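Input record (one chain):
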Amino acid sequence: MNPNLSIYDNLGGADGIRSLVEAFYPRVQKNALLAPLFPEDIDPVMEKQYMFLSQFFGGPALFSEAYGHPMMRARHLKFPITPSHAQEWLKCMSAALQDIGVDETLREFVIQRLSGPANHFVNTPE
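The corresponding structure, as predicted from the sequence alone:
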């Protein structure tokens, strides 16, 4: 991990973020807790996630350019998200980072950075 670069650049820019999203969603679709929250046609979700993560990790503001301010909590309120959902989402993301060959230091940093938003989306008790 190069501390002088953004997370976006440390992950390999657009290609790295695309690889991460492509490694992440098959795990989500196989996850018994998470899969019911997602549509069968996952492609639009993957594209939005690619755009959001690009922006969130310091790359181009693709999501805001296409959809306006992310307002991610508000966008997720229609889904019942428990603390367990947040933890499973983070586990899938960690595994996807490992799948694409992200070293442990960067992987832990990315998961730490995503933990705040993941837990912020929680809107339903267990």
